Amino acid sequence: xxxxxxxxDSALAYRPTVYEYCQLALRPTLDRAAAERMEEILRRAExxxxxxxxxxxxxxxxARLQPCLGEQRLQQQQQRLRxxxxxxxxxxxxxxxxx
Length: 99
Hints:
Layout: H1 6-13, H2 15-25, H3 32-47, H4 49-65, H5 71-97
């Protein structure tokens, strides 16, 4: 039987990162170090499609584990995260393409 699946091996290699992401995402608040680590993970996920997929799935799991987080609140948090990521992306673009 050939080596089962390189994709599965790659996904398993991301296990510690996804687990850490879930632990951070389940915290009610993040201190500066935790927020920076979350940012590192999300930046890495932007560059690595499989990690991005796994983080998306982890977000769904985190949402289910927090039943007190209603659908409207979840959408608000996701929008705030999108806005923050967009602002960060614009800042980086300006810094890269600046004078």
